[in-house]
Design goal:
Layout (H helix, E strand, L loop, with lengths): L1 E8 L2 E8 L6 E7 L11 E6 L2 H8 L3 E5 L4 E6 L9 E6 L7 E6 L2 E7 L2 E3 L3 H10 E7 L2 E4 L7
Antiparallel strand pairs: 1-2, 3-4, 3-9, 5-6, 6-9, 7-8, 7-11, 9-10, 11-12
């Protein structure tokens, strides 16, 4: 997003572009949620307030960042070791479903990390997120990861 700004300096008007998103502005995030019984919901685009307090309220906890790429970041609860928080998605490290590098719990919010805070995701970002973040199902002590074609 670019915002055109004007400022008066020494009796002259100067024009400049403000790039990025600003705290308090709405951004588009890709959200993947799971309920308390472990039922996964499909990811969806949601407009969220671009402020740390707002994100903390959405996740209902202090949050951490997990980078999928240099720009795409997953925001999740810091308390990933809490077994009471349902498992949501696995992040795979390559094209193989067998190469899972991390499993995340609870609500997940995917955004772009920029110099001035978080920015909106676009369709290409969402396609990548869907490719590397796989649904995880838990039945008793067993954990299953599915890419749509295979389940391990």
């Amino acid at each position: 997003m670019k915002i055109l700004c004007y400022i008066a300096y020494r009796s002259n008007w100067h024009r400049f572009w403000l790039r990025g998103e600003i705290d308090g502005m709405m951004i588009k995030a890709y959200v993947m949620d799971v309920n308390e019984n472990g039922v996964l919901y499909s990811g969806h685009v949601e407009e969220i307030d671009n402020s740390p307090d707002s994100i903390r309220r959405l996740l209902d906890a202090p949050y951490m960042e997990t980078f999928l790429t240099d720009g795409i970041v997953v925001l999740s609860s810091k308390d990933q070791e809490d077994a009471n928080i349902p498992i949501n998605r696995a992040i795979k490290d390559s094209d193989s479903i067998d190469n899972v590098k991390l499993i995340l719990r609870g609500k997940l919010i995917c955004v772009i990390s920029g110099n001035e805070g978080y920015m909106s995701v676009d369709e290409n970002d969402i396609a990548y997120i869907k490719k590397v973040m796989l649904p995880v199902f838990q039945l008793g002590d067993q954990i299953f990861i599915s890419d749509g074609d295979n389940t391990i």
